[in-house]
Here is the input.
Amino acid sequence: MYGIIGSAVVLGAISVWAIKKFRVKSIEDQEIVLPPKNKSYARYILGGSIFGLGWALAGACPGPMYILLGTGVFSMLIVIAAAMLGTFAYGLLRDKLPH
Here is the structure.
């Protein structure tokens, strides 16, 4: 598992470097500009903790929830409903949250 995640991080870092270094253009012939990230760590720690807590409580990665449901793990219905409710709540609160 760590090899998959690690290779994705390495590939992403190389891709971002290449986009910046070679000034890659989009299919509309516009230069791709990657704005610098805001370096406030509190929101990343809080958001990551909430996401990780939900992942741990569900006992499954967000992707395979549907596969588990298809294999007969019907408790995933609760997890999927909670994920949809969380997404809906975020949509309602998005304008009020600091981004």
In short: The chain has two domains: 1-35, 37-99. The two ends are 30 Å apart (CA to CA). The chain has a mean pLDDT of 90.
